[in-house]
Design brief:
Distance between the termini: 52 Å
Structural class: mainly alpha
Strand content: under 5%
Oligomer: single chain
Number of helices: 2
Largest sheet: none
């Protein structure tokens, strides 16, 4: 019984976090990911760009799931 209660609490916590995900996605992309996509020479800069690009796929996939049926507007705008 204790295990079931723990599982239910964990599920509710995850569900709440998923609801809040879109709130944090835009600042994360604008402040952290997009600035690191700019070209700078060097191995370190290349590794940072690669990491930034690898963040875009899951972020885009998750935002598509969160926004399904809500809006077709892009997340990032100038």
């Amino acid at each position: 019984m204790k295990h079931i209660n723990h599982c239910i609490k964990a599920w509710l916590k995850l569900k709440n976090m998923l609801r809040q995900f879109p709130i944090y996605l835009e600042p994360f992309l604008k402040d952290i990911v997009v600035p690191n996509l700019l070209w700078h020479a060097g191995r370190t800069a290349a590794a940072i760009r690669t990491s930034a690009i690898s963040c875009l796929g899951p972020a885009a996939q998750r935002s598509t799931l969160c926004r399904a049926g809500k809006s077709n507007q892009p997340i990032l705008t100038d």
